[in-house]
Amino acid sequence: MTITRRGFLGMAGVAGVAGLAAGAGLAGCAPAPEKATPVAATGDEAVSGAAYEAAATYTCDICICGAGNSGLSAAVEAAQQGLGVVVLEKHGGTGGGGIGTEGVFAVNSQMQQDANISIKPAEIISCEMEYSHNRANGLKWLDLVQASGENIAWLQECGVNFTGVVDDYHGGMFQTFHWFGENRAHDDFSPAMTETARSLGVEFLLNCPAVELVMDNGAVAGVWAQKLNGDYVLVKARAVVLATGGFANNDEYLQEGGFSDTTNVKRFLYGYDGDGVRMALEAGGASNVPRMSGLMQLTVQGAPGGEYGTFGRGDGLVVAGHNPCAIWINEDGQRFCAESAGIENWMADMIPSLAHHKLYSIYDAKIFKDAYDGMIMPRIDWAATQEELAQRIEENPYDDFFSADTLEELAKKASDALGLDYDTVIASINGYNEMCEAGDDAHFGKPKEYLQKIANPPYYFCYMPQACMVTFGGIRTNRKMEVVTKAGEAIPGLYSAGVDSADLWPNIYTINVPGGTNANNINSGRFASKNAAVYIGSGKAGAVSSEGDTSPSVAEPTWKMPEGSLKDGTYTDTQFGMFSDIAVTVTVAGGKIAEIKQENELETTYVGQAAMEQTLIPAVIEAQTVAIDTVAGATRTSQGFLTAVAKCCEQAVA
Fold first, then answer.
1. Could you tell me if 149 and 156 are in contact, meaning their C-beta atoms sit under 8 angstroms apart?
2. How far apart are CA 380 and CA 576, in angstroms?
3. What is the phi-psi region of residue 189: left when phi exceeds 0, alpha when psi lies from -120 to 50, beta otherwise?
4. Global pTM?
5. pLDDT tens by residue, 96-142
6. What CATH number is given for 300-464 in this structure?
7. Are 341 and 355 in contact, with CB atoms under 8 Å apart?
8. Top-level CATH class of 81-284+470-548?
9. Record's Gene3D superfamilies (predicted)?
């Protein structure tokens, strides 16, 4: 089987997105509090539909909701336009979900010119428009392509580091990918853009998510935000940019976007709840949620493969399950599509499952081994994969993976455990094998080269839930990035940028254009702020003022060291982090935590591992407690690590 770029991404893991949930700085380990009961509004606060009592008030020209790649770009551009800027960020550090991005798309940059790379803008746009059956916004593609080269120069002026390498990112259709350094945007984009923004007077309010827009006679007048301690902050602003990172963690919006099994959908990022979409809709904006796309795939539950499958690194169980030679059946036991759907675009693998509640994959030992051999970067070697597989079959913690030496036994095991109709399941398998023998998929027309009879025991039956890393789209905007109503009228002062409103890839992410998503993040952020500056005009304040309790939003400890002295010794515990189990060893000497070590397979070296080794371990030893802040962007890694340390301490006291 020929391995295309899309196949490589699906089988080997996506390096450009594998670290998206990591960051720098400290974030609170306590969850955000529930909304308080609104109080009666007075004076300027009466413009809000549901005003709260403000512990602090900030006055500025523009408020940016979100400090990811699009929010940082919007903040820097707004400040350069002479606006007073406040940025509200849900987490404790800047960078958001974009810190794992490896680079940026551009056409006609100086780097491309130096490398004699020449691409006609129309080639890019026609390719994307054709793939989407002209559902994509062609004018926004035109704006992005035309501005992209200058955007690279602008980023360099802001201190963003590029290696100078421009290529097609592992076999993409165009040489448009401008590479950051080894540690991606985490080191080469986010810190530089944050520093540039702060040097221009941008005020960042971290651990302080936006919760509601302030409206005045149909126009935006500011934003309400909430600190971790429950206090409300009022940001008065004439313009607001929503750049909150999408809604991968919001079941309601995923259902509206076509997901059929949100009870079991696997997530990759943390805290992307559709805040921007919700606020835009509450303000009268139109929804683009039904046209959503994103980084989505079929995955497996638990090891081997982890909760996130090939969003991390390749694993045989995940890859075999969506191998084009497997059989897919739905919750009724019926085969429902050609399983080769994702050969040219691994984003298309999951699309057929959206019309069904469940997807089960059936394959044999040969398909499993072929899938493993086809991976560019397998997580572990074949022998270790077999060991993990045997353990998974024996323990079967989710009651969703089965193996047998005959197809009849396999169908019986799975049907009994999952409530499927055995006769339908075995008929689907036998009917498929008959079509393979005939070399003709008479039902769905799968190409002959993928019609491989399931005939090499042992046989496998695996439930493959839908997984979502990040969503594209949700808020309808015009060419100026203004949020518009269903009638197409702009809501004065309200803008959206980044994946919250990305409508360049309706219904499916094409992955044709290397670096396109990040380029849209940056360009839409800049466009939003440029147009907001025109909207505000000469009445801009050019600065930020504040009053009230402007102290930082910090987490309150939620765990205390158990009562009693720690007994000397060595204690171990294992918890799941972002991508894998984290095994922690705590050494107690003289009644105190003297040493902490951790081992993991898949936590990112430059974020997850760095968070533990460089920040969390020294902080716990110094404080002699795990009641410390998590590392922003490495929240799940931090929580897994700190929980494991806490369990070790509890063992030491017991």
1. no
2. 18
3. alpha
4. 0.87
5. 988 889 999 999 999 999 999 999 999 999 999 999 999 999 999 99
6. 3.90.700.10
7. no
8. alpha beta
9. 3.90.1010.20, FAD/NAD(P)-binding domain (3.50.50.60), Succinate dehydrogenase/fumarate reductase flavoprotein, catalytic domain (3.90.700.10)
